[in-house]
């Protein structure tokens, strides 16, 4: 018999369930993700730092966990909410049980929750702070502790997720280019996708200076995805401006995209409940094609769609939009060699439709060279 | 990029009769396509020979041709309609094959017709085995090692290389017809031999066995900009080796990591692009080695398929509708998502529930048929369920099957673990029951995994969890709220719980306890997006979760109960009537609420009713839906549910009528008491006697002694059957006492509650079917009077019939009217009633009266231009026949009992599935017709004359009647006299008559030239009849069985079996032969024409108006 647990949102809505993973108490911003596959990638994605993740897919843990699918070296989610965890995993690559791993890494979760009701609540009222407890089952008291937690708006989290020391991921096969990547919460598959194209990636701590990056003589610079409010990321924004000023090719993903947006002079804002899932249709305005993509963002860039925008780095245009809600999903410099996307071409988890963007990045480097 | 403006007229081809492998999912897809195209302002002409479809309702197309789907007839339609384009991807393999044939014969070019939604090259690449292998390789995938063979020599050579076992797949057949797995060289000879014969291009693929691998399907869509989305992934619980149509399947895939799933997706998309499917849907099947993840592409269908219908219902993404829009030029990003309205169709649905589909089999209809599940599809229907977890969905699907077992522990099963494990080795219907038994009896998940040919341990553990839960329920001192809630969250029914806790006094006791504890289901919504966006379509399923999503509404609601999984005897015809009820009641502002669990149907399209509940049709599930709708309606200040319709969905809802009424539900239409009256021999007998209506002498028996006494008094032959059946289940004509004894012994369920009915059988009578309406004032409206072409004794569902009844005179009709009116009033029918009569020696006998919609309602409605089911639904909610006449729904005066002069003749013909079934020894099952229904579907032939109409019905059902060649004739002694005339006529028309010595002797005396061949057991030196048939030398067979009862069954079996194998039309009755001769004459006259239903209906209604 598993022990009971509760989940309380900051507005007091309470869900009852059973403890899943570690027994304890945890807090974070409650967000839902609609991906039907890829829970291991989700859990280990640093962008979920300080978030309590609700899986809308009801059966979780079916394939267990394995040594290959982590996107970083630990589980990052602050808490995990599922409906029906698997009793036993089944997959030829499985090396363990998900519940066991959550417990081993001290991740507090809750199962048996009406995740659909919770998702509808978050959809209608927006992402909000939440707490899960399998220690104290009094909702009122837990709500008080939830309300004492910091908001995601205004949170500067890069320092908490970035690498301590620079490290390198070598190109597969023949080395063609060198990329300096600023780690704001990078996922492993980014460097793998680059390596597959002959790129050696040096991954730098978030606090690195332009001189640090230039020390490896990069052919291009990459700004990684990551957690937190982009409005707080003044350091990386200044760095992006330095990169553009030097006309070093620049590519950013997700948080990195918001950094570039700010560097170009745009604002960012918090979405009601964000885009989190692997089925989001993005329209590429340059090709007129639709790609089904992996998303994980609670903030977005505020830029006008369908026009040339003049910035201090020359003309810029919105290159990609989400067809569901017209949110800006990509920016492209018309003069400066920089482009970014708000979603995840590296997928993991998710479809590979946007993998071509890594080719575009390499092409940009090639042209520049 | 908007739609193409050069396409102003599209022809849609349907899939024809319901057969195994091609069922009403194509009515669902075709109906959607017609609606979409017309909404775009495009003229639609439609060809489909199946009158029981919604798509052939005249309002769904501009010109509806209920004509055979053959090259000849479709060309006639093209010549008359001159469409700009043909959309052939929504009518299954039939439509696709017909379109290809028209392309190859140059007809499309001749009339300047473009194929849209498919191109011939892509179809060929998808279906040609060798081309497909090359394409998969180019796309970076693997296929099983294999070779395409055109002869048995090539087959043996290939197997020498690959080794046994191998899979045999004939090219260009549907539903895996003719395919199978060969473990021995004998298997190989048999399966590959018939596979070569079944393939229209005499081609089979011999392939490395991937038996036991995990099996997956993806449903994809592509638009002209090369945007591709994966609508749904489906995982088969039954590993490779069982046809996917016969497998228990789950959506979305349950046991793949994202990496593996994305690999599947990448490869699927690459194959789709490489094949070059222009626009529309396609389905790709994969196998994955459970040991190392090696992935293999099995096949693809470049069209909307059975799985597409399932995927559409499972996700809320309407594949056929979108495919039709893509075909006329739209792109995915331009099409809005129906359910959210705000987001586009260019996305991939996210599910926050689990879907389980279970196939429904009908082996009980084919005694002797081999029940092993193989790569040849044998199921006749399916049910689908949704739940918030796998266990809930699985248990709901299991109780949706309409079989004796209604979920685990509701029927006896194995008691010995070794026997259960042994039984798992051969895939069979209900295998999950065996899995549960094995686990419960102590087998481990690993043992069951191995024994079952490697069902994935995750699924097995889910069943193990149910076994553990069962133990907890059994061991618990009381069934407390916590445990009961857990049981319900695992999908267990009250009935299952009652089986475990007898002290609760049955299902009712469990329900009372459950309601007292406040444990009721909530209703969630299928919204394509896992709640990310607001849904605007009330497509619901139940779950024992926290929050319900039923929107309050104060409109008066009507609940319509559907018919559940298709099976022989209860198919698409009942769904048709339910859909019509919805349409009729929506039109007069009732809020319609549909309850059904069959994913193939139009009724479970979320567009059909105002609200859709995808739920099992059990008492418990229906009661909860009623409660949810009624209480939310009343809470909103409305009247709630004011009516529940049980009369239109066949036996499934009818069987619930009494209990629902007792539970306080407002059953509308004929009352459950009246329904009982029609079934109760005593009450019904009194009714007949009071009104001076004749019926065959009969009695009711609960033992052999009683049955024998009755038979002795009324005389043999007798017709015996269990009470309360549909489709003639268990019905037999018994000619002698030993057979009667055998029948009673086999009828294990015989009891005072379930007696056996024994009737005098009227030999050589004309059988008549009547569909009639009766309202609360007692006015009776004859919908149609049908005359069976075969004599009485063959189930009406298997018999061809004609409307108007060609041989009946006015006094006969008047007598039929008198009888029908007396019956309808006496029973108290409010709505539809079907009566079967026999006319023998000028006397009319009542065979049976069923106060419900019958199988013939759609046929009659189309043949007479009167929507009977719509009228019935209105009558059930209080309208009178007079009002409906005034409205124009019914004819202003007169009725279907009198057709106007010059009215066309409509012939209904049944389609039989004998080709699908083999005995254990590998022989065909017998194709002889009997009182037990065996057909899966029907067609209609309609034309000015009987001959033309009959010829069309045959062409639509079996392929054309021959116009020249050899006719093999072998008839029973009693038939020799009546057979002279038709056979003479065939000889006069230039056919060569081939016969056996007995029949030949008689024919020669009448001066009919004939070739005599030996019977297969007579003279081994000469080519016998069976060999001639198998060699394709015979164009038509007329063979009536000698003797009666069991001996008739044996006589001619070899010939009928050969006819089935060689696909030669085979006639087994004298009237059938006469009709065929008239059909042949019409064909030879060469004046076949086609006319749309709209025109025929104008004629039918105009003449009477």
From TrEMBL, chain A:
Catalytic activity: L-glutamine + H2O = L-glutamate + NH4(+); hydrogencarbonate + L-glutamine + 2 ATP + H2O = carbamoyl phosphate + L-glutamate + 2 ADP + phosphate + 2 H(+)
Residue ranges, annotated region (CPSase): 1-177
Domain annotation Carbamoyl-phosphate synthase small subunit N-terminal: ranges: 3-133
Residues forming the catalytic site: 254 (nucleophile), 344, 346
Gene3D superfamilies tied to this protein: 3.40.50.880, Carbamoyl-phosphate synthase small subunit, N-terminal domain
SMART domains: CPSase_sm_chain
InterPro entries the record matches: Anth_synth/Amidotransfase, CarbamoylP_synth_ssu, CarbamoylP_synth_ssu_N, CarbP_synth_ssu_N_sf, Class_I_gatase-like, CPSase_GATase1, GATASE
Assigned keywords, A-Z: Amino-acid biosynthesis, Arginine biosynthesis, ATP-binding, Glutamine amidotransferase, Ligase, Nucleotide-binding, Pyrimidine biosynthesis
Highest taxon of the lineage: Bacteria
GO terms for MF: carbamoyl-phosphate synthase (glutamine-hydrolyzing) activity
Recorded metabolic or biological pathway in which this protein acts: Amino-acid biosynthesis; L-arginine biosynthesis; carbamoyl phosphate from bicarbonate: step 1/1; Pyrimidine metabolism; UMP biosynthesis via de novo pathway; (S)-dihydroorotate from bicarbonate: step 1/3
EC number: 6.3.5.5
Pfam families reported in the protein's UniProt record: CPSase_sm_chain, GATase
UniProt binding sites for L-glutamine: 47, 226, 228, 255, 258, 296, 298-299
Function: Small subunit of the glutamine-dependent carbamoyl phosphate synthetase (CPSase). CPSase catalyzes the formation of carbamoyl phosphate from the ammonia moiety of glutamine, carbonate, and phosphate donated by ATP, constituting the first step of 2 biosynthetic pathways, one leading to arginine and/or urea and the other to pyrimidine nucleotides. The small subunit (glutamine amidotransferase) binds and cleaves glutamine to supply the large subunit with the substrate ammonia.
Subunit annotation: Composed of two chains; the small (or glutamine) chain promotes the hydrolysis of glutamine to ammonia, which is used by the large (or ammonia) chain to synthesize carbamoyl phosphate. Tetramer of heterodimers (alpha,beta)4.
Family: Belongs to the CarA family.
Protein name: Carbamoyl phosphate synthase small chain
Protein species of origin: Actinoplanes sandaracinus
Native organism taxonomy: Bacteria, Bacillati, Actinomycetota, Actinomycetes, Micromonosporales
Encoding gene (name): carA
UniProtKB/TrEMBL annotation, chain B:
Keywords on record: Amino-acid biosynthesis, Arginine biosynthesis, ATP-binding, Ligase, Magnesium, Manganese, Metal-binding, Nucleotide-binding, Pyrimidine biosynthesis, Repeat
Cited InterPro entries: ATP-grasp, ATP_grasp_subdomain_1, CarbamoylP_synth_lsu_oligo_sf, CPAse_ATP-bd, CPSase_dom, CPSase_lsu, CPSase_lsu_oligo, CPSase_preATP-grasp
Residue numbers binding Mg(2+) 4: 848, 850
Segments of this protein annotated with the region Carboxyphosphate synthetic domain: 1-402
Family: Belongs to the CarB family.
NCBIfam families: CPSaseII_lrg, PRK05294.1, PRK12815.1
HAMAP family: CPSase_L_chain_B
UniProt remark on domains: The large subunit is composed of 2 ATP-grasp domains that are involved in binding the 2 ATP molecules needed for carbamoyl phosphate synthesis. The N-terminal ATP-grasp domain (referred to as the carboxyphosphate synthetic component) catalyzes the ATP-dependent phosphorylation of hydrogencarbonate to carboxyphosphate and the subsequent nucleophilic attack by ammonia to form a carbamate intermediate.
Protein name (record): Carbamoyl phosphate synthase large chain
Provenance organism: Actinoplanes sandaracinus
